Amino acid sequence: MSEPSRAPVVLIVDEDLGFVWWLGQMFSQAGCQVVPALNSGQTDSLARDLNLKIDVIVVNPELAGVSELIQSLSSERPVKIIAIRNSDTRVRTAVHAHATLERPSGWGPVSEKEWLGCVRRVVKDVEAAGVARRECS
Q1: pLDDT one-digit tens code per residue, 20-79
Q2: Measured between alpha carbons, how far apart are the two ends of the chain, in Å?
Q3: 44: buried, middle or exposed (CB in 10 Å: 19+, 13-18, 0-12)?
Q4: Chain-centre distance for alpha carbon 97
Q5: Which residues lie closer than 8 Å to 133 by C-beta, 6 or more apart?
Protein backbone atom coordinates (compact mmCIF):
# COMPACT_ATOMS: atom_id res chain seq x y z
CA MET A 1 0.00 0.00 0.00
CA SER A 2 1.38 3.39 -0.91
CA GLU A 3 1.94 6.18 1.55
CA PRO A 4 -0.73 8.92 1.40
CA SER A 5 0.46 11.98 -0.46
CA ARG A 6 1.27 14.97 1.67
CA ALA A 7 1.46 18.63 0.90
CA PRO A 8 4.97 19.75 -0.01
CA VAL A 9 6.83 21.49 2.81
CA VAL A 10 8.15 24.84 1.60
CA LEU A 11 10.79 26.73 3.55
CA ILE A 12 10.78 30.47 2.73
CA VAL A 13 13.94 32.37 3.71
CA ASP A 14 14.18 36.14 3.23
CA GLU A 15 15.04 39.07 5.49
CA ASP A 16 11.82 40.95 4.64
CA LEU A 17 9.25 39.69 7.16
CA GLY A 18 6.30 41.19 5.26
CA PHE A 19 7.36 39.54 2.02
CA VAL A 20 7.94 36.17 3.75
CA TRP A 21 4.46 36.36 5.29
CA TRP A 22 2.79 37.39 2.00
CA LEU A 23 4.65 34.78 -0.04
CA GLY A 24 3.82 32.19 2.61
CA GLN A 25 0.14 32.92 2.08
CA MET A 26 0.56 32.35 -1.65
CA PHE A 27 2.25 28.97 -1.12
CA SER A 28 -0.37 27.98 1.49
CA GLN A 29 -3.14 28.77 -0.98
CA ALA A 30 -1.28 26.66 -3.54
CA GLY A 31 -1.59 23.68 -1.17
CA CYS A 32 1.82 23.74 0.51
CA GLN A 33 2.86 23.64 4.14
CA VAL A 34 4.95 26.75 4.77
CA VAL A 35 7.83 27.29 7.17
CA PRO A 36 9.02 30.93 7.34
CA ALA A 37 12.52 32.07 8.31
CA LEU A 38 14.32 35.40 8.22
CA ASN A 39 17.86 34.03 7.87
CA SER A 40 19.92 30.89 7.41
CA GLY A 41 20.53 30.49 11.15
CA GLN A 42 16.81 30.29 11.87
CA THR A 43 16.36 27.58 9.26
CA ASP A 44 19.00 25.33 10.77
CA SER A 45 17.27 25.56 14.14
CA LEU A 46 13.79 25.03 12.70
CA ALA A 47 14.75 22.06 10.56
CA ARG A 48 16.67 20.37 13.36
CA ASP A 49 14.30 21.12 16.26
CA LEU A 50 11.11 20.30 14.35
CA ASN A 51 12.60 17.42 12.34
CA LEU A 52 11.25 18.96 9.14
CA LYS A 53 11.42 17.22 5.81
CA ILE A 54 11.81 20.20 3.47
CA ASP A 55 10.77 19.65 -0.15
CA VAL A 56 11.28 23.16 -1.54
CA ILE A 57 13.43 26.07 -0.37
CA VAL A 58 12.34 29.51 -1.54
CA VAL A 59 15.33 31.67 -0.76
CA ASN A 60 16.94 35.02 -1.37
CA PRO A 61 20.35 33.89 -2.66
CA GLU A 62 21.94 37.14 -1.46
CA LEU A 63 21.51 36.22 2.22
CA ALA A 64 24.58 35.16 4.17
CA GLY A 65 25.02 31.41 4.55
CA VAL A 66 22.57 30.40 1.83
CA SER A 67 24.92 27.99 0.05
CA GLU A 68 25.72 26.23 3.32
CA LEU A 69 22.02 26.11 4.24
CA ILE A 70 21.10 24.49 0.93
CA GLN A 71 23.95 22.00 1.23
CA SER A 72 22.93 21.10 4.79
CA LEU A 73 19.24 20.63 4.00
CA SER A 74 19.86 18.72 0.78
CA SER A 75 22.38 16.32 2.35
CA GLU A 76 19.57 14.15 3.74
CA ARG A 77 17.21 14.24 0.75
CA PRO A 78 16.82 16.05 -2.57
CA VAL A 79 15.47 19.58 -2.20
CA LYS A 80 14.20 21.85 -4.97
CA ILE A 81 15.36 25.48 -4.91
CA ILE A 82 13.34 28.54 -5.92
CA ALA A 83 15.42 31.72 -5.92
CA ILE A 84 13.88 35.07 -5.01
CA ARG A 85 15.27 37.76 -7.26
CA ASN A 86 14.98 41.50 -6.96
CA SER A 87 13.96 42.99 -10.28
CA ASP A 88 17.20 45.00 -10.43
CA THR A 89 19.63 42.15 -9.66
CA ARG A 90 20.64 38.79 -11.07
CA VAL A 91 20.54 35.56 -9.08
CA ARG A 92 24.00 34.49 -7.91
CA THR A 93 25.34 31.57 -9.87
CA ALA A 94 26.58 29.90 -6.65
CA VAL A 95 22.98 28.87 -5.97
CA HIS A 96 21.57 26.45 -8.53
CA ALA A 97 17.84 27.22 -8.65
CA HIS A 98 15.16 25.12 -10.31
CA ALA A 99 12.98 28.24 -10.67
CA THR A 100 13.04 31.95 -9.95
CA LEU A 101 10.40 34.25 -8.47
CA GLU A 102 10.91 37.96 -9.01
CA ARG A 103 10.09 40.09 -5.99
CA PRO A 104 7.41 42.69 -6.73
CA SER A 105 8.94 46.14 -7.04
CA GLY A 106 7.69 49.66 -6.71
CA TRP A 107 4.59 50.92 -5.02
CA GLY A 108 2.10 49.70 -7.60
CA PRO A 109 -0.56 47.16 -6.71
CA VAL A 110 0.37 43.48 -6.88
CA SER A 111 -2.20 41.10 -8.30
CA GLU A 112 -2.73 38.33 -5.77
CA LYS A 113 -4.50 36.27 -8.43
CA GLU A 114 -1.54 36.54 -10.83
CA TRP A 115 0.98 35.73 -8.08
CA LEU A 116 -1.04 32.76 -6.88
CA GLY A 117 -1.12 31.44 -10.45
CA CYS A 118 2.61 31.99 -10.75
CA VAL A 119 3.33 30.22 -7.44
CA ARG A 120 1.13 27.28 -8.46
CA ARG A 121 2.99 26.97 -11.79
CA VAL A 122 6.39 27.13 -10.11
CA VAL A 123 5.41 24.53 -7.47
CA LYS A 124 4.05 22.23 -10.18
CA ASP A 125 7.21 22.66 -12.22
CA VAL A 126 9.62 21.98 -9.35
CA GLU A 127 7.64 18.89 -8.32
CA ALA A 128 7.82 17.48 -11.85
CA ALA A 129 10.68 15.19 -12.77
CA GLY A 130 13.20 16.68 -15.17
CA VAL A 131 11.89 20.17 -14.52
CA ALA A 132 12.90 22.94 -16.86
CA ARG A 133 14.03 26.17 -15.27
CA ARG A 134 11.14 28.64 -14.94
CA GLU A 135 11.14 32.33 -14.17
CA CYS A 136 8.06 33.99 -12.86
CA SER A 137 7.38 37.59 -12.02
Answers
A1: 998 999 899 888 899 999 888 888 777 777 777 888 889 988 888 888 888 888 777 788
A2: 40
A3: middle
A4: 10
A5: 97, 98, 99, 100
